[in-house]
């Protein structure tokens, strides 16, 4: 039955991929194929536990599971994404992004001649920020708000700018990430020890590698896009015009950066006794921006009218991003319900490979699962609990085997056109999530091979 479920899963993966290539609505494609897989898992008896709280009817449980997915996404990070979308909309309305570009162009004017160096410099800086901001979507959206317009003004193409921002979110590194916490628990070590002793030795060389790869791959892709007439360079946008003239006080330049600063200052790095989450930081920053506008205009009509841009930004990201994340999770639930993940694990265990080879194979499978599901959490939470027993069978340390597997899940998410972070930052940057996923594919395929070789061969 498990084999049949895997075959059916592969069929629906193929169907979904074909429909997506034909440019059908991705939410509809993922929702329909996900519901069909869940229905078949019930009919075949592979999965009989859909809803967390049963309605008493299997038929209604199917739809209750969809409602629970919506609720779960909204409670975990859906509102956070919407709040950031609202903040972006308000920043654009009050021209704060233009002010940031204008102020930033003064010290960064040197990089006008070296735009690709400016772009790749974001990767290590973003990797450091990710330790303080344990949310891929949150970090990606914050960088789109603050760094993206500056890169564009320096002559970086939209796809290159957003691809390096996506690269910053590729490693769930630090004790604040759910995947990292689960990995440390499975390895029976503290989250901090796992971070320092196992994650950092892999992340540091991989970050350096990505900086080099993105420098050359970005130049190649930009040149190819220009030759094909698909250039995403901005020449006459409001962002570039802002360098010549802005319609906002220069003090407004602090507003796009304010959420990032708050999240860093009130994190575990500084012993302030206060810890902020991304949503709280966004809402507080929005109130500060409102006060700036009230002092600037002293006009209640303009003040209240401006707030609607925040709601419009929230609604826009709900419609285009949150719904896609929900449908992607339903699609992932369908794959899990049909036993696709279990079949992959069982197949890898019957190949009579060495412990290192099995670890590499599982890491590759988890990477591909992250691509298919659009979720690093779903991919790793499906495979992670199996690792201790597998490592024990081959006489390996759980921590040595689980680290590359955990990191491959978040790397796969970065290459998925249906992942929350890729969809969210693509929407704000005005590029296709599929184009962004293609940009990320080669760098992270190389990074995956390097990570596996470094972990299982060099570190051994």
Topology (elements, then pairings):
Layout: H1 2-21, H2 26-43, H3 58-93, H4 96-108, H5 115-120, H6 122-132, H7 136-146, H8 148-153, H9 158-168, H10 178-186, H11 191-227, H12 238-241, H13 254-265, H14 278-297, H15 300-337, H16 340-349, H17 355-373, H18 376-383, H19 387-393, H20 398-414, H21 420-429, H22 433-458
Helix pairs in contact: 1-2, 1-16, 2-15, 3-7, 3-14, 3-15, 6-9, 7-9, 7-13, 7-21, 9-11, 9-21, 9-22, 10-11, 10-20, 11-20, 11-22, 13-14, 14-15, 15-21, 16-17, 17-18, 17-20, 17-22, 18-20, 20-22
Strand content: under 5%
Strand-and-helix sequence, N→C? HHHHHHHHHHHHHHHHHHHHHH
> Could you tell me the mean pLDDT?
82
The N- and C-terminal alpha carbons lie at a distance of 37 Å
Q: SS-based structural class?
A: mainly alpha
What attributes does this structure have?
globular; 460 residues; mainly alpha
Description of the structure:
With 460 residues, the protein is mainly alpha-helical. The protein is 76% helix and 0% strand. The protein is built from 22 helices and no strands. It has helices at 2-21, 26-43, 58-93, 96-108, 115-120, 122-132, 136-146, 148-153, 158-168, 178-186, 191-227, 238-241, 254-265, 278-297, 300-337, 340-349, 355-373, 376-383, 387-393, 398-414, 420-429, 433-458. Helix 1 (2-21) runs antiparallel to helix 2 (26-43). The two termini are 37 Å apart. Residues 236-244 have low confidence and may be disordered.
């Amino acid at each position: 039955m498990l084999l049949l479920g895997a075959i059916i899963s592969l069929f629906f993966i193929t169907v979904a991929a074909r429909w997506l290539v034909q440019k059908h609505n991705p939410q509809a494609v993922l929702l329909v194929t996900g519901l069909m897989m869940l229905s078949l898992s019930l009919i075949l008896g592979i999965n009989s536990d859909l809803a967390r709280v049963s309605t008493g009817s299997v038929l209604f449980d199917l739809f209750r599971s969809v409602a629970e997915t919506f609720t779960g996404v909204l409670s975990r990070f859906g509102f956070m994404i919407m709040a950031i979308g609202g903040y972006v909309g308000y920043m654009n309305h009050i021209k704060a992004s233009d002010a940031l570009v204008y102020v930033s162009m003064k010290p960064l004017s040197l990089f006008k001649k070296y735009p690709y160096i400016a772009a790749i410099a974001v990767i290590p800086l973003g990797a450091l920020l990710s330790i303080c901001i344990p949310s891929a979507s949150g970090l990606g959206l914050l960088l789109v708000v603050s760094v993206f317009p500056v890169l564009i003004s320096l002559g970086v193409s939209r796809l290159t700018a957003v691809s390096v921002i996506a690269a910053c979110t590729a490693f769930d590194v630090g004790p604040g990430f759910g995947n990292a916490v689960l990995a440390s628990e499975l390895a029976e070590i503290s989250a901090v020890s796992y971070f320092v002793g196992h994650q950092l030795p892999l992340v540091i060389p991989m970050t350096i590698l990505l900086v080099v790869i993105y420098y050359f791959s970005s130049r190649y892709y930009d040149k190819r896009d220009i030759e094909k007439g698909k250039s995403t360079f901005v020449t006459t946008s409001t962002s570039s015009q802002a360098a010549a003239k802005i319609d906002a006080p220069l003090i407004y330049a602090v507003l796009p950066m304010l959420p990032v600063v708050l999240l860093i200052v009130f994190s575990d790095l500084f012993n302030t006794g206060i810890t902020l989450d991304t949503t709280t930081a966004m809402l507080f920053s929005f109130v500060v921006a409102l006060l700036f506008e009230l002092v600037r205009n002293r006009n209640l009509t303009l003040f209240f009218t401006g707030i609607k841009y925040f709601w419009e930004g929230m609604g826009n990201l709900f419609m285009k991003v949150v719904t896609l994340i929900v449908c992607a999770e339903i699609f992932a639930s369908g794959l899990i319900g049909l036993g696709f993940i279990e079949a992959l694990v069982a197949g890898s265990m019957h190949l009579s490979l060495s412990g290192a080879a099995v670890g590499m194979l599982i890491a590759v499978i988890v990477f591909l699962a992250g691509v298919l599901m659009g979720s690093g959490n779903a991919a790793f939470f499906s495979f992670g609990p199996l690792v201790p027993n597998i490592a024990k069978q081959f006489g390996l340390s759980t921590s040595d085997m689980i680290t590359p597997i955990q990191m491959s899940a978040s790397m796969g998410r970065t290459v998925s056109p249906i992942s929350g972070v890729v969809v969210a930052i693509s929407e704000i940057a005005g590029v296709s999530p599929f184009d962004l996923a293609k940009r990320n594919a080669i760098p992270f395929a190389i990074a995956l091979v390097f990570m596996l070789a470094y972990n299982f061969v060099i570190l051994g």
